[in-house]
Amino acid sequence: MSVSSEPTATSAPTATSAPTATSEPTAAPATVPPEPTATLEPTATSAPAVSEAHTGERAIVLTEDLHARPASALAQAAAAFTSAVTLSYGSRSVDVRSVLSLMGLGATSGQTVTLLATGDDAAEALTALSAVLGG
């Protein structure tokens, strides 16, 4: 009689258990009073107000329609200054750094527009931007 010595592969089934939900009530978190905050004394220094010398306005009669090319030239020139500059036409005012906003004004040759600049280099900005617009 012969006995085989070959190993046999057997796999033992593994038992998995699903977590069970418990219905135990959880304790409410304890309320913690807020910690006192330090009070700061007001300081005597404040931001300086923009003076009248840093604000300027200039009316310009356009020598050409305010289409893509002049609007782009105006926006590029305005980027060289730190002052906030707006262009007004009719009842609308737009930032001169936005080509699309400038074109959206619909200002045409012979119309009067108003440049308003506020900031440290407002006078220089008005002079340069007026030249771009033909004023």
Fold and architecture overview:
The chain has helices spanning 68-78, 99-104, 122-133, and strands at 55-61, 84-89, 92-95, 112-118. By secondary structure, the chain is α+β, with helices and mostly antiparallel strands. The protein has a four-stranded antiparallel β-sheet, with helices on one face. The radius of gyration is 37 Å and the shape is elongated.
In terms of topology, how is this protein built?
Elements: E1 55-61, H1 68-78, E2 84-89, E3 92-95, H2 99-104, E4 112-118, H3 122-133
Antiparallel strand pairs: 1-4, 2-3, 2-4
Descriptive keywords:
single chain, 135 residues, alpha+beta, four-stranded antiparallel sheet, 3 helices, 18% strand, elongated
Q: What is the count of β-strands? A: 4
Question: What is the H/E string?
Answer: EHEEHEH
Whole-number radius of gyration? 37 Å
Query: What is the structural class?
Result: alpha+beta
Number of helices: 3
Low-confidence stretches: 42-51
Alpha-carbon distance between the two ends: 119 Å
Q: Give me the side-by-side strand order of the main sheet.
A: 1-4-2-3
Overall shape: elongated
The share of residues in helices is 10-25%
* Mean pLDDT metric: 79
Largest beta-sheet details: 4 strands, antiparallel
| Proportion of strand residues | 15-25%
